[in-house]
């Protein structure tokens, strides 16, 4: 029996990109999927565009949050509604290559590893590839992700029949990292696919992020989500700062 893939997407003011994102899902060679889009109280035309597409494709399902609650709440709503044997994640401004779902399922079947992720290309908002590709390691374990989160939301792929359905910690930042760490407590490692499976769109506002706030959020995550002691937290924070610089310098 063909297994259903549940695709988790949180959307907030994604009017400029959401149609392209959904189209990249509709173009998948593996067609047995449901796309669960949760709109996080957008103030632009995001919902109207989703509704128009959903009216023509029953696999596209959408939900509204009454008030803006952040990506963790939105994604958890989609996870709660998910019916699939697999969970995949795609942000509302990113894109998949047409083979992403098929290759991810094949990799799980071939490696017997229930958690896989893939490399991706990085573009600007106009889909110009002015940045280097991000090539993932072949394997990551729990402590690897504490040092640097090499599993992106746009390529994470999880066999929930084996690992169960888990939810993101409802914090402002690092929600995805929190979920990957939960799964890496249940499986020895996640398997990285070297071939790029997706396009991560680097938006202008992400280039000018307040680094002090990022560091503060990372520290909060170590201490209050993963409950690491101060020495462990400092060690992983220093690793994260160094590896993050290497990751984004190109």
What does this entry look like structurally?
This protein is α/β, with parallel strands linked by helices and 250 residues long. 40% of the residues lie in helices and 20% in strands. Strands 1, 2, 3, 4, 5, 6, 7, 8 and 9 form a nine-stranded mixed beta sheet that branches. The model has no long low-confidence stretch (mean pLDDT 93).
Topology of this structure?
Layout: E1 5-11, H1 18-26, E2 33-39, H2 46-54, E3 60-64, H3 71-81, E4 86-89, E5 95-96, H4 100-111, E6 115-123, E7 139-140, H5 142-147, E8 157-159, H6 160-163, H7 175-184, E9 190-201, H8 204-207, H9 211-225, H10 230-248
Parallel strand pairs: 1-2, 1-4, 2-3, 6-9
Antiparallel strand pairs: 4-8, 5-9, 6-8, 7-9
Defining traits:
single chain; 250 residues; alpha/beta; Spore Coat Polysaccharide Biosynthesis Protein SpsA, Chain A; 9-stranded mixed sheet; 10 helices; 40% helix
| Terminal residue distance | 44 Å
CATH topology: Spore Coat Polysaccharide Biosynthesis Protein SpsA, Chain A
| Low-confidence parts | none
Q: Overall 3D geometry?
A: globular
The structural class is alpha/beta
The gyration radius over C-alpha positions equals: 17 Å
Q: Biggest β-sheet, characterized?
A: 9 strands, mixed
Tell me the name of the CATH homologous superfamily: Spore Coat Polysaccharide Biosynthesis Protein SpsA, Chain A
Assembly state of the chains shown? single chain
Q: Helices and strands, in N-to-C order?
A: EHEHEHEEHEEHEHHEHHH
CATH class: Alpha Beta
């Amino acid at each position: 029996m063909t297994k259903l893939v549940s695709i988790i997407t949180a959307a907030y003011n994604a009017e400029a990109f959401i149609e392209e994102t959904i189209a990249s899902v509709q173009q998948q060679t593996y067609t047995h999927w449901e796309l669960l889009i949760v709109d996080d109280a957008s103030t632009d035309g995001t919902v109207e565009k989703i509704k128009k597409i959903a009216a023509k494709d029953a696999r596209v399902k959408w939900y509204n949050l009454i008030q803006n609650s952040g990506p963790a709440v939105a994604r958890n709503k989609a996870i709660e509604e998910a019916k699939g044997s697999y969970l995949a994640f795609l942000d509302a401004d990113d894109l998949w290559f047409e083979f992403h779902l098929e290759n991810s399922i094949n990799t799980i079947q071939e490696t017997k590893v229930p958690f896989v992720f893939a490399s991706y290309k990085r573009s600007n908002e106009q889909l110009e590839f002015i940045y280097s590709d991000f090539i993932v390691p072949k394997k990551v374990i729990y402590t690897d992700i504490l040092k640097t989160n090499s599993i992106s939301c746009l390529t994470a792929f999880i066999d929930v029949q084996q690992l169960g359905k888990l939810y993101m910690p409802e914090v402002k930042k690092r929600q995805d990292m929190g979920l990957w760490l939960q799964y890496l407590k249940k499986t020895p490692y996640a398997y990285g696919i070297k071939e790029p499976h997706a396009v991560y769109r680097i938006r202008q506002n992400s280039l000018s992020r307040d680094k002090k706030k990022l560091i503060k959020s990372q520290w909060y995550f170590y201490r209050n989500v993963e409950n690491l002691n101060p020495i462990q937290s400092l060690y992983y924070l220093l690793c994260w700062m160094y590896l993050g610089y290497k990751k984004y310098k190109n």
